[in-house]
Amino acid sequence: MSDDTPDSLIPYDEIVQEALRAVVGRVLGEVESTGGTLPGDHHFYITFKTGAAGVSIPAHLKERFPDEMTIVLQNKFWDLNVAPDHFSVGLSFNQMPAKLVVPFSAITAFVDPAVDFGLQFQAIGDPQGPEPHDAAENDSPGGDEPGTGGDDGSNVVTIDFGRKK
Q1: Which of the 8 DSSP states describes residue 150?
Q2: I want to staple 108 with a disulfide (CB 3.0 to 4.6 A). Which of 9, 36, 58, 130 is the partner?
Q3: 70 exposed, middle or buried (CB, 10 Å; 0-12, 13-18, 19+)?
Q4: Is the pTM of this model over 0.90?
Q5: DSSP classification of residue 12
Q6: Per-residue model confidence as pLDDT tens digits over 12-43
Q7: Which region, left, alpha or beta, applies to residue 131 given φ > 0 means left and ψ of -120 to 50 means alpha?
Q8: Burial readout 18-32 (b: 16 or more C-beta within 10 A, e: otherwise)
Q9: What percent of the chain is modeled with pLDDT above 70?
Q10: Which residue, among 32, 34, 28, 18, has the nearest Cα to 112 in the 3D structure?
Q11: pLDDT tens digits, 56-101
Q12: Alpha carbon distance, N-terminus to C-terminus of the chain
C-alpha cells in the first residue's frame, strides 16, 4: 500500500466547509427570526478574517485586528440580518456602537459554549488556517472563553483533508 494519497478531482474539503458555514447561517437565521433573542443560555463566539473580501468593520477595529477577530453575540447586539452569503450585526466596542458585515466565507470558527459546540474551518482562500489572536472584547457580560476542543469532551468539528502545501 502506498503512502501517497491521490489528488481528488472532486473538491471534498471545499464542499464540506461550505456545508459547515451553512450551519452557522442557519443558526444565525433562527436567532434573526426570533427578533434577535437567543434561547436559554446560548451565545456565540464567531471568529473571522478581518481582511477577507466582503468584510466591513470600522477602521479602528481593522487597525486593532488587522488579521482576525472574535466577536460575541450574547446580550448586547442588535440589527442581526442574515443573508445567503453573509450576516451583519450591530455591536458595542468600549461603548462605541459599530456595524459589522461578515461573509460566511471569512469565518474561521463558530462556538456556542453553552452547549459545548464548535466548528472550525479555514477561511476561503486561506490555506494556512487561523492564527492565534486576542478576542475582540466587544461589550458583553461574563467572561466565558470559547472551547478549544481537544480531549475535554467538547463537540468541536475540524475538517482537514490533508491538503498538500
Answers
A1: S
A2: 130
A3: buried
A4: no
A5: H
A6: 888 999 999 999 999 999 999 998 889 999 99
A7: beta
A8: eebbeebbebbbebb
A9: 72
A10: 28
A11: 999 999 999 999 999 999 988 999 999 999 999 999 998 899 999 9
A12: 23
Distance of CA 49 to the CA centre of its chain: 9
Q: How far is CA 115 from CA 32, 71, 85, 136, in A?
A: 20, 18, 26, 22
Domains and CATH numbers, the chain: 12-158 (2.30.30.220)
Specify whether the CB–CB gap between 74 and 66 falls below 8 A: no
Residue owning grid cell 466596542: 93
- Among 133, 147, 149, which Cα is nearest to 69's? 133
Residue bearing cell 456595524: 99
| Residue 13 near residue 165 (C-beta atoms within 8 A) | no
Among 135, 80, 86, 82, which Cα is nearest to 107's? 86
